[in-house]
Amino acid sequence: MTIKAVIVEDSRLARNELKQLIKEHADLELIGEASNVDEGFELIQSENPDLLFLDINMPEKDGFELLEMLDEVPITVFTTAYDEFAIKSFEYNALDYLLKPVSQKRFDMALEKVRAKLSNIHNPADTTKRLTPNSQIFIKDGEACWLVKISDISMFEIVGNYTRVFFEDKKPMLYKSLNQVEEKLPEDAFFRANRQQIVNTNYIENVVPWFNGKLKLAMNNGEEVEVSRRQSYIFKDKMSL
């Protein structure tokens, strides 16, 4: 399998170094490069790469801002000249980080992680532009950042004009409306319970009959979700209840 990669890096020297490292791997194809976030966004949108080599510190907009702009984030390997920043980025769930200048050995190790990750992903072509369970999204809430796989999210909930995302024990804010989120979610796994909440049906622990024909869902993270009367009928049909 050919791994299609792009580089978003403001330093021409650093881009050239990465290109030399990429040439050492027959299964790695560089399909584009960009020197800033806006160019990188356009490149990723048009080319849909498997792998993104992303510099963190760039003028005007940084690498995290690029990830926020994307609906779906490719497998990401951060590149940085700042060791402390790199380690922090790794904690944010990037697949790996490379500290500049990048050695061939360290690059090869990162690529092995990429290959292992891709070998576990088997997604059909998605002509509807919806995300798949294996897709990952970038969430930045204050100083904290995460790359989260869609299948790891148990629920989305309206908070004003934005959306709270529930995964593991985290509840960060995503700066998109719930309607915008719903348009991208895989329909087979996510269900709009009411005007305020969308649930991942794989995280439902119990379904309880409620008042006036409604249902109440007990989620395995301890949250309870009341399904509207109209959506309760749809839910019963969807789940064959």
For this entry, give a set of tags.
241 residues, alpha/beta, Rossmann fold, OB fold (Dihydrolipoamide Acetyltransferase, E2P), 5-stranded parallel β-sheet, 5-stranded antiparallel β-sheet, elongated
SSE pattern: EHEHEHEHEHEEEEEHEEEEEH
Radius of gyration: 20 Å
Strand content: 25-35%
Instruction: Name the shape in a single word.
Output: elongated
Return the average pLDDT rounded to an integer.
88
Give a brief description:
This protein is of the alpha/beta class and 241 residues long. It has 7 helices and 15 strands.
Description:
This protein has 241 residues and is of the alpha/beta class. The chain has 2 domains: 3-119, Response regulator (Rossmann fold), CATH 3.40.50; 151-238, OB fold (Dihydrolipoamide Acetyltransferase, E2P) (Beta Barrel), CATH 2.40.50.1020. 29% of the residues lie in helices and 32% in strands. It is built from 7 helices and 15 strands. The chain has helices at 12-22, 37-47, 63-69, 83-91, 104-119, 178-184, 229-238; strands at residues 3-8, 28-34, 51-55, 75-80, 96-99, 136-141, 144-149, 153-159, 162-167, 173-174, 190-192, 197-200, 204-209, 215-219, 224-227. A 5-stranded parallel β-sheet has the order 2-1-3-4-5, with helices on both faces. A 5-stranded antiparallel β-sheet has the order 10-9-8-12-11, with helices on one face. Strands 13-14-15 form a 3-stranded antiparallel β-sheet. The model is unreliable at 122-128 (pLDDT under 50).
